[in-house]
Amino acid sequence: MTTLRAGLIGLGMMGRHHGRVLAGLPGVELVAVADASGEDPHGVAKGRPLCSTIEELLEHKLDYCMVAVPTIYHEPVALALANAGVHAMIEKPLAQDTPAAQLIADAFEQAGLVGAVGHIERYNPALQQARRRLEEGDLGDVYQIVTRRQGPFPARIADVGVVKDLATHDIDLTSWVRQQPFTSVAARTAYRSGREYEDLVSITGQLADGTVTSHLVNWLSPFKERVTIITGEKGAFVADTLTADLTFHANGSVKTTWSDIARFRGVSEGDVIRYAIPKREPLQVEHENFRDAVLGKEADIVTLAQGLATVRVAEAAIESARTGQTQQL
């Protein structure tokens, strides 16, 4: 396997995890790291050159770079990489707004470079398994996808609200797992923690095939929850991405003889199966796929076009909350 020279810029909470994976990724050599502070608070460098700018990092003749800087810096860093002819994976969201995301996507396309967005939930074993089973028809027609993503406020987030930081996970995974784009969204937000940005959102939406979606996301809950529920004609999948468990609740085949209940219920409770599935670290799988994409091999990456679409949906949700109107996409 060809050894690719990789760089990492952004050595914060996510940067340290990317550094750990890159340092041990077969076929890749992490040659240098960078952070605007010029510091390495989590010890990612481990003897490698520590730079303070993207320009310094580019001097190390990179094949590709992992971008884990705050969202507001995605655009200048990504454009510098595109201009230098360096492939890049950029942490989600792709950029702080749609125009910036479009500039990045266009720059990489024009340069003929591989670009990806770090929507890591796609690589969660529970959702990977759900996607495969949906493709095999295990649920039949899909009616609804509901997600809940809530927990305490992470002090590391300062430049965006809960919609662009957390809800973009749910927007991306919902569109991906169903292989359908969003066509409309309506949302309500709340500002309860005294910050400039929203810390709670409730989004309803619809995909191009008619699937109804619902997303509850906040930074105000004292417990952590990461759940996706996919309901279809044969039952429902419940994916818990904290534990990477996938459970199938089948529609029952036992006839209800109590006439009052039989008239009321559309389906009955059936068997419940929790699948035994391999549980590899999502970040490892994400980096393996991007490495393979750079090498020209078959790979499952979140493309920049898909990352751009997610930013558009997120901004439509924010606009809906501002105006009180459903936004068409």
User: For the CA atoms, what is the radius of gyration?
Assistant: 21 Å
CATH architecture of the largest domain: 2-Layer Sandwich
Given as residue ranges, the uncertain stretches (5+ residues, pLDDT < 50) are none
Largest sheet: 9 strands, mixed
Task: Write down the overall geometry.
Answer: globular
CATH topology of the largest domain: Dihydrodipicolinate Reductase, domain 2
Estimate the mean pLDDT confidence: 94
CATH top level of the largest domain? Alpha Beta
Q: Oligomer, anyone?
A: single chain
- Per DSSP, the total helix count is 9
Number of domains: 2
Task: Give the SSE string.
Answer: EHEEHEHEHEHEHEEEEEEHEHHE
Main sheet strand line-up: 14-13-12-11-7-10-9-8-15
The total strand number stands at: 15
User: What is the distance, rounded to the nearest whole angstrom, between the alpha carbons of the first and last residues?
Assistant: 42 Å
**In percent terms, what proportion of residues is strand?**
25-35%
What's the CATH H-level superfamily name of the largest domain?
A: Dihydrodipicolinate Reductase, domain 2
InterPro entries: Gfo/Idh/MocA-like_OxRdtase_N (IPR000683), Gfo/Idh/MocA_Oxidoreductases (IPR051450), GFO_IDH_MocA-like_dom (IPR055170), NAD(P)-bd_dom_sf (IPR036291)
Domain Gfo/Idh/MocA-like oxidoreductase N-terminal: 5-119
Protein name: Putative oxidoreductase
Keywords: NAD
